[in-house]
Amino acid sequence: MYTNLNRIRADIEMLSTFNDSDGEGLTRFSLTKADRGARNYLKNALEKLDLKVYEDAAGSLIGRLEGSEPLAPTILIGSHFDSVRNGGHFDGPAGVVMALEIMRVLKAKDIKLRHSVEFVAMIEEEGGRFGAGVFGSRAMTGQVTYEDLVKHKDEAGISMAEAFEAFGFDPKKIGEAARKPESIKAFIELHIEQGPVLEHEKIDVGIVESIVGIREFRVIIKGRPDHAGTTPMTLRKDALCAAAEVISALPKYASRAEEGTVATVGVLEVKPGAANIIPGKVEFTVDIRSRHASAIQIVQDEIEKKLNDLANLNGIQFEIEMLLSVKPVAIDAEVIKCFKGQADQNQFSYKMMNSGAGHDAMIMASIAPSGLIFVPSKDGRSHCKEEWTDYDALQKGIELICHSIIELGR
Ligand SMILES: [Zn+2]
Fold first, then answer.
1. Structure confidence by residue, pLDDT tens digits, 150-187
2. pTM for the complete prediction?
3. Which of 4, 70, 125, 241 places its Cα 20 to 30 Å from the Cα of 214?
4. Ligand 1 centre distance from Cα of residue 382 (Å)
5. How many angstroms does the Cα of residue 189 sit away from the middle of ligand 1?
6. Cβ distance 81 to 381 under 8 Å?
7. Which domains does the chain have, with CATH numbers?
C-alpha cells in the first residue's frame, strides 16, 4: 500500500482532541477554539509538506501541490472538519485525513502529476453552529453572499459575519471563495457510509453513483379547537386526525414511487395541546428523498391530493411551506470508471451505492465532476459517540482514492 495506517490513525486521534464535548462524542463547531485547534494541526501538517497553504474567503483550509502544468484544472480532495453536537470522530475528518495522507504520499514518493492537487478541509458542512449546512462548498460554488453571513446566527445571537471577523476573516470578501468551473478537474470526497450496508455485506468500499435529492416542507393543518366532551364526532374539525391520515399513508406513497424513495415525518406539533381539547392546529415536517426528482414530486403530489380530499370532507384547511429542495446528483461517469478500475487493480471489493445524505460532493457537482467513496460505518451508526470505522477499513478507501488521483492527475 502507498498509504500508512499508523499515520491515518494518528491523524484521526489527534483531530479528535480538538473537541468541546470530551467523553460525549465530538463537538467541533465552526469558528470556535476547537475549530482553531484542528485548523492549526492540519495547517502544520500541510506546511511540513511544503504545500501552498491558505484559507479561502469562506474559511475552508486549502493545501495546494502544484502540477507540472499550472494552468491545467485542479483536482480537489477532501471533506469537512466540523461536526454536529455530540457527533462522532469520523464524519468529516475521515475525508480530511484521506486528503492529508494522499498529499503525504504524493510528496514522499515524489509523484509528478500534470494537474495540481489541493487538499480541502471544508468549514460548516453540518451547519451545527450557524444552521448553514454545506457552507464551504456552497461558497466555493458561488452560492453564498455577505447578506447570508449576516442572516445566519448561532444560539448566542452571533452572526456568521461577526464570527468571521472575530476569527480574522473578512466577511465582505465571501464572494472571492467562488471557483471557476473550468478551473476544477474534479472534486473527490471520502465519507463514512452512515448506514449498515457495507459492514453487513463485508464490502470494502462503496462507490457512490448518485446522491439523492431532498425535499423538506412543513404542513400546517388548521381545524377547530372544540371541547373534547361536548362536540359530537360528526361535527369535528380535528386537525390531528387529518394529519394522522396523511402521515400513516406516507410509507405507501413512498413505496409506490420509484425504488428507494423514502419519506419521513420527524417533527409533529399539536395545538393547543391539552387532553380535553380537540386539536385545532397541527404542524409537521415531511422529508422526502430519492435519486429521481420525479419520485419526490409524486410523493408530494399524493400528500397534497390527500390533504385536498380531507379538506373537502371535513372542512380543515392546510398550507405547505417549503423548507429545502435539492435536486438529485449523478456522479461523474469518468470518475466512477476510474474508481472501479482502481478497486479491481488493488483487489478491493466494492458496491455501487446511492447516498441518502447530502455531502459537499453534492454541492461541488454543480460546477465540477465529483466523486464520492464510502467506507464502512460500524453498526451503521453516525452523528453519535458510537460512530466508528476500523482504521484498516478507512485505509482501503484512502488507498483507492490515492491511486485514482494519480490516474486522474497524470
Ligand atoms: Zn459529513
1. 999 999 999 999 999 999 999 999 999 999 999 999 99
2. 0.85
3. 241
4. 9
5. 10
6. no
7. 5-212+329-409 (3.40.630.10), 213-326 (3.30.70.360)
